[in-house]
Amino acid sequence: MTASTDLKRAKRAVRHRVLAVRDMLSPADRERASARIADHVLSLPEVERAFVVMVFWSFGSETDTAPLVEALHARGIRVALPRIVDGEMEPHTYAPGDAVTETSFGAREPSGGDELDPSTIDVVVTPGVAFDRSGRRLGYGGGFYDRLLPRTRPDAVRIGIGFDVQLLDEDLPSGHFDIGLDWVVTESGVVRFRRTE
C-alpha cells in the first residue's frame, strides 16, 4: 500500500466521522451557529477592509452562508461565488437575487456574473469538512480550493468556516499539496494561524 493510499484512507475516515457529527446538528442549532459565524467573519479587520470576497453557496448540513453573502453585499463589498468549469473552480460575481444553477452535489453557482481573476480577490471564505488548530483544512476531496488558492495573491486572506464540531484538536492528515488557512471561524469565535507556505 502506498503512502498516497494511506493518506486517502485516513482523510476518508475523518470525513466520515466529522460529517456524521455535523449532520446530527439540528436545523435550529445550525441556523443560530451560522448567524454567529457570519458575525465573527464580518468583524475581522481583513474582511472590513476587503473590496472582493469569495464565499461559497452552502448545501446540506454546512454553515449557512446566505447571511454572510447578504451582509457583505449590503456593505458594498463585491461578492464572488465559485463556478466549476471544465473541472476547475472559477470565481464569478454574485449579488443576492442573481440567477443560480444547482450543481450535481447540491450547491448552487452563479448562472451569469463576471468571471474574476483570482488575483483580484482579497478574502477567500472556504468550506471544509474539518479543520485543525494548525490551520489545516480537510475538504470534500475534489482539490478545487487547493488548486484555486495558489492563484490568488500571496496576501489574500484564507478563512475556513464551520461549526465547533468541525474544529478538531487532533492534527488532520495532509499532503504537501494541501493549502493552509489564515483563520478558522466557528460559532465560538476565531482562531488565527501563521501560514507556513
What's the gist of this structure?
With 197 residues, the chain is α/β, with parallel strands linked by helices.
Describe this entry's structure for a reader.
The protein has 197 residues and is α/β, with parallel strands linked by helices. The protein has a single domain (3-192), classed as Rossmann fold, CATH 3.40.50.10420. Helix content is 28%, strand content 24%. The chain is built from five helices and twelve strands. The strands form three sheets. Strands 3-2-1-6-9-11-12 form a seven-stranded mixed sheet. A three-stranded mixed sheet has the order 8-7-10, covered by helices on one side. The two termini are 29 Å apart.
Relevant terms:
single chain; 197 residues; Rossmann fold; 12 strands; globular
Helix content: 25-40%
Number of helices: 5
Tell me the radius of gyration. Answer: 16 Å
Strand content: 15-25%
Q: What spatial order of strands do you see in the largest sheet?
A: 3-2-1-6-9-11-12
* Series of H and E elements: HHHEHEEEEEEEHEEEE
The CATH topology is Rossmann fold
Q: Ranges with pLDDT <50 over ≥5 residues?
A: none
Secondary structure: number of strands: 12
Structural class label: alpha/beta
The major beta sheet can be summarized as: 7 strands, mixed
- Please state the second-level CATH architecture: 3-Layer(aba) Sandwich
CATH superfamily: NagB/RpiA/CoA transferase-like
